[in-house]
Specification:
CATH class: Alpha Beta
Strand content: 15-25%
Shape: globular
Number of helices: 5
Helix content: 40-55%
CATH architecture: Alpha-Beta Complex
CATH topology: Sufe protein. Chain: A
Number of strands: 3
Number of domains: 1
Distance between the termini: 46 Å
Strand order of the largest sheet: 1-2-3
Structural class: alpha+beta
Largest sheet: 3 strands, antiparallel
Length: about 150
């Protein structure tokens, strides 16, 4: 295992153990959306709550159970997207999905790598198609919760 792969593994384990944003909180926002997503393949699940003030994500919290990949991914996502806006989420969502389908190759775009922050550590997941759903679970929950908050 390369030094970079070891570093990525450590980032994932850190997020899995110390989930950022874990623990659902009551959002004080004007518009609130919540989504519960389950990966029926493995049983991972996450409930995510988002609060919006206009286009601004001013509250983001979650709770869930499952493998370290699903839990760490939603933690990393929460860390990078808390206190941003919907456009930033859409750009990050597309970049993360691209990363998941890169078959283990890092993104060739410095802006997107900067945008994804710790989520870049999941690049190796793309080598294992069965694990992509685990990594995407929280991202899909946020997309659904945002749609509910906007309706």
């Amino acid at each position: 295992m390369s030094d970079l792969e070891q570093m990525y593994q450590q980032v994932i384990m850190d997020h899995a153990k110390q989930g950022r944003g874990k623990g659902l909180v009551d959002a004080q926002s004007r518009r609130i959306g919540e989504s519960h997503q389950v990966n029926t393949t493995c049983g991972d699940e996450v409930t995510l709550r988002v609060g919006l003030n206009g286009e601004h994500i001013d509250s983001l919290s979650w709770d869930g159970a499952g493998c370290s990949i699903s839990q760490a991914s939603v933690s990393a996502m929460t860390e990078i997207l808390a206190d941003t806006d919907i456009d930033t989420f859409e750009e990050a969502f597309d970049a993360f999905r691209e990363l998941m389908h890169s078959r283990g190759e890092p993104l060739d775009d410095e802006h997107l790598e900067d945008l994804l922050g710790d989520a870049n550590a999941f690049v190796g997941v793309g080598k294992y198609p069965a694990r992509i759903k685990c990594a995407m679970l929280g991202w899909s929950a946020l997309r659904d919760a945002l749609a509910k908050a906007q309706s």
